Amino acid sequence: QVQLVESGGGLVQAGGSLRLSCAASGRTFSTYIIGWFRQAPGQEREFVAVISWSAGNTYYADSVKGRFTVSRDNAKNTVYLQMNSLQAEDTAVYHCALKWGGLSTNSNLYNYWGQGTHVTVSS
User: Fold this and answer.
1) CB contact at 8 A, 30 and 41
2) With 90 as the cut, is the pLDDT of residue 34 above it?
């Protein structure tokens, strides 16, 4: 089994920053991919960012490109999502998810999910 725990959410004013963390434990078998997704109230889950095991490959949704940065510390089994220039439209529950294999923006391909952390951006 794999466990993912997100942290770092909260309330921030527009233009502010937050850093989310996703700590992985259990039978990750290394070389795993971590994706970040978010879901706003009444909306479908959407892809935010993804990072490869080596961190050499990352990919972002157009809506966050240039504002969000995903990184990872494999020694700590932790992936980070640095979110800058936050906007009201970024308000959502943010989830990290794990898969093996290649990068993907398709949430259906991820095997394990964290419980989510709330991000609220006030305008």
Assistant:
1) no
2) yes
